[in-house]
Amino acid sequence: MSAKLPRILFLHHAGIVGGAELHLLSLVRHFGSRARVLLFSDGPFREMLDSTGVSVRVLRSKWTTSGVRGGTPRFNVVSVADVLRLGWATAEAMCDADVVWANSPRALFVASVAQLIRRRPLVWYLHDLLEPSHFSASGIRLIVSTANARANRVLTNSRAAADAFVRAGGRAELIHVLYYGFEVPPLSPEPSNATRTTGVFGRITPWKGHDVVLRALARVPNVTAIFVGDEEDPDYANELRRLARELNVQDRIRFLGFRENVAELMRSVGCIVHASTAPEPFGRVVVEAMLAQRPVIATNAGGVGEIVEHGVSGLLVSPRNVDALAGAIRRIFEHPAESRLMAERGRERAMEMFSEERMFRQIEQHLTEVLSDR
Fold first, then answer.
1. Is 172 a residue whose pLDDT tops 70?
2. Does 197-353 match 8-181+355-372 at the fold level?
3. pTM for this structure?
């Protein structure tokens, strides 16, 4: 199928940049001139898409910025009218598309309306865990019922996310696991000196567990940490600074904010910690750390356990377990030969399981099957 890719219309609600957006960006680059994108919010993500040369259109919507995550879906007279408007515009854009790809729950709702006007196969990529820690009960019911009724196929980034979809009432025959794919970066030279620095990469928001890292660091002397990521929750970021002073580790912490040279920063630290306190559907940062050939310590919840083999390609700890995290950090720095071996195995595993080439090949196969079922 690679010889002639289908014409695909991608729908996405957000203009910010996160894991779901970076995944979509890689797909748009792959499909090239065969792709078009409809966004329902403007922002940095649109600018990144523009750089690919692919046609991008923004249909602004206040409803898509309120969404369904973490609360009751906000469907009132105004928002329903907005969804109908977006659905009509999407149906017009579908006229020369072979397949529609909805990249979020809100995109799924809009695509479902558009399907009533112009029939096209609909693929929904589920980036989330449909569980109460992430969505309201009513939001989960609405998302799952829409997917059951309208999607031709549901793809998702982990077995954990697939199982959550089925537990919520999703049709098991619809869902297929398709792991994220990553471009394999070349390895820069090892740091000339053995660094006792831990890196935490991700948005500064409570469920990412930066406070757990601080408490663990207080129990591991002579180890420093860098926090790399947007301060999405300024109040939480200020609380972290207060906690660092209270624990007397403020001189061992640096807040670097958002950085574009993430791969370089990952290679500069002695280990990378993923400390999310709620289950992650996947764990993008974990794979990026493995590809950077750094020892990884990760929370064993959600899809992360599918990425890391404990003691082989990294270390797994339970969520919020400060003692376990502190012990894992000590193990990394006190046993450098074991840590190097885990890092090497981690890179090998990441290249095998999470390459872009593998992901694109699987996507093309799914699209072939969806189109043949028409």
1. yes
2. yes
3. 0.90
What six digits make up the tokens of 1? 């199928």
CATH no. of 197-353: 3.40.50.2000
- Collapsed DSSP state (helix, strand, coil) of residue 12: strand
pLDDT at position 25 is 96
CB neighbour burial string for 17-54, b if at least 16 within 10 angstroms, e if fewer:
bebbbebbbbbbbbbeeebbbbbbbeeebbebbeebeb
- How many residues are listed for the chain in this entry? 374
Which CATH architecture best describes the domain 8-181+355-372?
A: 3-Layer(aba) Sandwich (3.40)
Axis-axis angle for helices 336-353, 322-334 (nearest 10): 100
Which one-letter amino acid corresponds to residue 196? R
User: Position of tokens 């990249």?
Assistant: 103
Q: Where are the domains of the chain?
A: 8-181+355-372, 197-353
Neighbour-count burial of 321, counting CB atoms closer than 10 A to its CB (0-12 exposed, 13-18 middle, 19+ buried): middle
Strand residue runs (E) in the chain: 8-12, 35-39, 55-58, 99-102, 122-126, 153-156, 175-177, 197-201, 224-228, 253-257, 271-274, 296-299, 315-317
Q: How far apart are CA 322 and CA 164, in angstroms?
A: 27
Lookup result for tokens 């969404």: 67
